[in-house]
Amino acid sequence: MLGGWQGYSTSGFNKQDKGLELILRVRVHSSAKRFVLSLVTLFYVLPFAVAGQNNAGNSGTKAGSWSGVLVSSSCNADEAFAESPECTKDVPGAKLALYDDTNRVMYGLEPQDRVAAHLGDTVTLRGTLDGDTIQVASAELMSIGLAVGQKAPAFSVHDQLGRIQTLESLKGANGTVLLFFRSADW
């Protein structure tokens, strides 16, 4: 059999013909190996090339919005999570950073002038994320909860026993105090 061809007999060949057959088999075998190696290389490198092209268009930036507390960059995520008073002090040479307490991540901010007046405030920033720095397009103060004296909206929720509670069902003779406690391990 020559190079895998069927129906081909070598019984009528002499010694020189058998040597030719061996050379052809080696060449066919080497070519097949090179072809398979080329395919493996192509399928290995192709995903990286495609990923590189996809990232070249956006240079690793991601548009979106991020919320958190503006803190001094001299503060780390653990200190910001513990609400250390040091995080809201104006430290010479330090920049402002956004501490995202949902993900426990600190983001650098540029340009600083868009957030400079809001150290310690809870904000929503819109812009693009490039690495770990947000390129700030806009900053908006967040209001958390109701203002003092503002009436609570009507609501209905299940309590710890599964019963439905409403603002009306919770009202007492002297009014109602609602406290929503966010667990420290969110």
- Which secondary-structure class do the elements indicate? alpha+beta
Instruction: Summarize the helix and strand pattern as letters.
Output: HEHEEEEEEH
- In percent terms, what proportion of residues is strand? 25-35%
Q: Note the main sheet.
A: 5 strands, mixed, barrel
Whole-number total of structural domains: 2
Could you give the count of β-strands? 7
pLDDT under 50 segments (min length 5)?
A: 1-8, 52-58
Q: How would you describe the shape?
A: elongated
> Helical stretch count?
3
How far apart lie the N and C ends? Answer: 71 Å
Walkthrough of the structure:
It is a single chain. The chain has 186 residues and is of the alpha+beta class. The protein folds into two domains: 1-58, no CATH class; 61-141, no CATH class. The protein contains three helices and seven strands. It has helices at 15-58, 77-81, 167-170, and strands at residues 61-72, 96-100, 105-110, 122-130, 133-141, 156-158, 164-166. Strands 1-2-3-5-4 form a five-stranded mixed β-barrel. Strands 6-7 form a two-stranded antiparallel sheet. β2 (96-100) and β3 form a beta hairpin. The model is unreliable at 1-8 and 52-58 (pLDDT under 50).
Secondary structure topology:
Layout: H1 15-58, E1 61-72, H2 77-81, E2 96-100, E3 105-110, E4 122-130, E5 133-141, E6 156-158, E7 164-166, H3 167-170
Features:
elongated; alpha+beta; 186 residues; two-stranded antiparallel sheet
